[in-house]
Amino acid sequence: MPHSQDITPIVLTIAGSDSGGGAGIQADIKAISATGSYACSVITAITSQNTLGVSAIHPIPLAHIESQLDAVFSDLNVVAVKIGMLADEAIITLVARKIQQYAPKFLVIDPVMVASSGDLLLAQDAISTLKKELIPMADLLTPNLPEGAALVGKAVPQNEDDMGGMIEDLRALGAKAVLLKGGHLEHDVNSNDLLIQQQSSELLRAKRYNTPNTHGTGCTLSSAIASYLAQGNRLHKAVYLGKQYISQAISYSDELEVGQGHGPVHHFFPGHVNVR
């Protein structure tokens, strides 16, 4: 029998699928695999999507989301869960109830709720349910700037000072930690994120790469962090490793020629060695 530390940890992603393969469940599975964990999935919605945008969203019936969750948790030893797109309030309520039931060791929530156009993907009642029922269970919440603004009811930050001005409001959401991602500050030389814990906050710096191929970055980063948490890293180290991984995946994204729009990051970039 293998020693327990030699067993590949299992990470579950609960999210929507991306037919173009660059974001959603597909990106999650690639990122979890590339960072050395075993990926399983529960699909909440099917999207018709490519590098040019999303043309249709079909939510999965609640009974089938529940049966997927029961199938995974009743058999697999899931250590960490990453939650991405939850299409509506009913799905959020169901997923919150099942997470409470199965109580995985780690929970990372990427609150997919604002489209790149700025349009809200979730109705206001669904955002309220997300804040009330799911976010307080999270070990880490990973909003980008528009999502962070929507969660706390403030204007989208235009600079790092504005990001700092959201710290207390984000803490009040109840997650153990929040990683506020600064990628939308496109005029900045770096792509810096703010890691907010209950007693501290820290700016994590990373080089910004000038590429249009950033489709799926949020999905990829949150999945990588969940993977590193499942492997036994403390939160700060898992976030650091996840940020290192996504930076590399972005830096090599131009080596992939996928689609005519915003292409995906390179999950299995050249020379990539599983960090585990």
Automatic annotation (TrEMBL):
The keyword Transferase applies. Its EC number is 2.7.1.49. It holds the Pfam family Phos_pyr_kin. The keyword Nucleotide-binding applies. Transmembrane segments: none annotated. Pathway: Cofactor biosynthesis; thiamine diphosphate biosynthesis. Keywords: ATP-binding, Kinase, Nucleotide-binding, Transferase. Residues 18-266 form the Pyridoxamine kinase/Phosphomethylpyrimidine kinase domain. One of its GO terms (cellular component) is cytosol. CDD domains: HMPP_kinase. SUPFAM superfamilies: Ribokinase-like. GO terms for molecular function: ATP binding; hydroxymethylpyrimidine kinase activity; phosphomethylpyrimidine kinase activity. GO terms for biological process: thiamine biosynthetic process; thiamine diphosphate biosynthetic process. NCBIfam families: HMP-P_kinase (TIGR00097). This is hydroxymethylpyrimidine kinase.
